[in-house]
Amino acid sequence: MNILLSKTEQDLLFLLEELTKHHDWIELSVLAEKLNCSIEELQEHLFKLEQLFPNLLIQSRNKGIQLQFDFQNTLDPRIAIFKQSETYSFLNQLFFKEGQSLEQMCQALVISCERVQEIIQHLNTKLPQHYGISIQPSPLVMEGEEEDIRAFYLDYFSQSYSFLDWPFPSISEESLTHLIQLFLDAQQVSPNLSSLRQIKYTLAINMERFNKGHLIENPTPLLTSHYSTLMQITQFEQDIKKLAKKLHFEPKKETLEQLFSNPVKSPQIINNPSNGALGNIHHIQKSYRLLSQILEELAKEFHLQIENREELIWLLHYTAQSDFFHLLSNQSLDRQKSQILSSYQVEFPKLFEVSQHKFQSYLIEMGLENHPIKLQELIYTFSIQGHRILVQLLQKFPKIRVLVISHLDSHHAQNLIDTLAHYGNNLYLFDSWEESSISFSILNQIPHDIVITTFPVTNSSKPIIYNRNFSTSELFHHLHLLASQIHKERLAES
């Protein structure tokens, strides 16, 4: 969806993403190089960001720059830029107020007609190429196959609004969720948060387009094709009629088919192994055998206990075989998953290297498209949905050894250990100093990674934390910063 933004908006988005990505100071020259612009142009972009987001805390020093974050007010760069974009405001208005004249659109957006025409021209260079649709200027309507229009708007709304937002004011989110849940319960399907959100957005878009008279020929079912059978169940029919009244539609088969139409034309939503979908029995058996072998090999190589082995095999099978994840995920979610995997990959490089190779081989062996997104989904499913896989690997790392020395008495040292252990018992191994003497030479020889003292120590080769009446949480904060650095160094060495 970035392609729909203007050049300036794309630059601002890239800049904001870079600033939110880096927690440390970043040099202006480095930022300018990444943005492919001059220092002067970069400073202009920074000025625009400060104008657009006055609460954004941009700090600068010695030609460097940093965002200061308030953890109570997190910022999603994409959504922040989208909300400020005239292009996205235009698309939003076009969806809900279809058929307006150019003058009406200008008045609604409070921008000049020349600017609206520029937006239309820009969109008509991008939309046909990427989505197979275009904008007719008089009256203002979206042109193209109805499935393509709905698929585009699913992409648009999924990426333009934060996860908890509901962009459809005329549709009750609660009633729509209940309607969807009726069909999901009938098929014993339990989607995750992301899947349910995409289904809700899909149904809301379908409902808005249907109410405007736009129909899909031969609609592909989203949740089920058994509308007539389900409607014969008395309780189901009664529940549907109640919700249909709240949502203002006629609860008949033709209407339900339009509302529950899949804009991506994906053949299967239900990822439940009990329904036997996604391939004939021989195909499924082959997939099961290969995945079972992969899990066995990974468990053996990395000394893992895969607690949900059978469930994980089926999850991997349906991830690989079904194209449904193309509907349930979007570019924004794919990017977030990629970022999550990248961070884990830094910690567990060998696991990710080996698992990627094995799942690539699986896709080839099964005659499936070896698409990067599908491979990413497989690795994500394995590492995230495999119970305690990453935790098991973490447990194999040696604990950070911490020595606590109190010049008051050993009881005080033990009290510090007890309170610190409450915060981080799985990462640290604490000891207290019980000897009656201590010196620089002794400190330098002890096997501990970090030393906490109640007195200042200078010129020590060991990382020292001087506990100058810190609260327990403050002391643990300093300890964790040092431990994180040690952990990173160990990862780099391994």
Describe this structure in words.
The protein is built from 23 helices and 9 strands. The protein is an alpha/beta fold and 494 residues long. Strands 7-6-8-9 form a 4-stranded parallel beta sheet, covered by helices on one side. It has a 3-stranded antiparallel beta sheet with strand order 1-3-2. The protein has a two-stranded antiparallel sheet with strand order 4-5. Helix 9 (173-186) runs antiparallel to helix 12 (234-247). The chain is globular and about 85 Å long. The two termini are 39 Å apart. 24% of the residues are buried.
Using brief descriptors, characterize the structure shown:
single chain, about 500 residues, alpha/beta, Arc Repressor Mutant, subunit A, four-stranded parallel β-sheet, three-stranded antiparallel β-sheet, 23 helices, 9 strands, globular
Q: Can you tell me the residue ranges where pLDDT is under 50 for at least 5 consecutive residues? A: 265-278, 324-329
Largest sheet: 4 strands, parallel
Q: How large is the radius of gyration?
A: 28 Å
Please estimate the helix content: 55-70%
Terminal CA distance reads 39 Å
Number of domains: 5
* Strand percent estimate: 5-15%
Physical arrangement of strands within the biggest beta sheet: 7-6-8-9
Oligomeric organization of the protein chains: single chain
Mean pLDDT, all residues: 84
Q: What shape does the CA trace take? A: globular
Q: Helical segment tally?
A: 23
> Strand pairing plus helix content: what structural class?
alpha/beta
Topology, number of strands:
9
